[in-house]
Amino acid sequence: MMVSTIINAIPEYVITAVVSTAIFYLMNAGKNLLHSKVQHAKTTQSKELWSFIEQVANTAVNSLVGKDLTGDAKFAQATAIVQDALAKQGFTNVDVKAIESAVQSAYEKSPLTPTANPEEKTDKSGQKEKVIVPDGKAKAIDPKEVA
């Protein structure tokens, strides 16, 4: 009688072990899925915040172009404008170095801010090249002579 009870209990133990293992793996998979969703949300939020910082920095830089201030004073004022705009939106934990980086980038990208050497311009790859204004006196190249 005892042997039959043990034999009858084996399927019950196997089912319990399988169900327990399945529950463990499902909970672990759910935890990993939740973690990846949280990471995705944080990444998306960071991208949106950086986009907002860049927009505010561009606006701040462009608003200070005509002011009679030194470059350092304009930079400091633009940084303060960005910090103020972020604080008004509730973003108080943004690193000042990140804000300064956005303002510097806005100055470099803005077509309204002068370059250090007005004869140089930045091409698409960021390289400086001389701007050559043709005077109309250069001889045209004859393709037959190039061979």
Please give a structural write-up.
The chain is mostly helical and 147 residues long. The chain has one domain (2-111). The protein has three helices and two strands. The protein has helices at residues 2-63, 71-88, 96-109; strands at residues 120-122, 128-130. Strands 1-2 form a two-stranded antiparallel sheet. A hairpin with a 5-residue loop joins strand 1 and strand 2. Helix 1 packs across helix 2. It is elongated and about 110 Å long. The relative contact order is 0.08. The mean pLDDT is 79.
> Which class do the helix and strand fractions yield?
mainly alpha
Mean pLDDT: 79
Beta-strand percentage range = under 5%
Low-pLDDT stretches: none
- Count of helical regions: 3
Number of separate strands = 2
Topology, please?
Elements: H1 2-63, H2 71-88, H3 96-109, E1 120-122, E2 128-130
Helix pairs in contact: 1-2, 1-3, 2-3
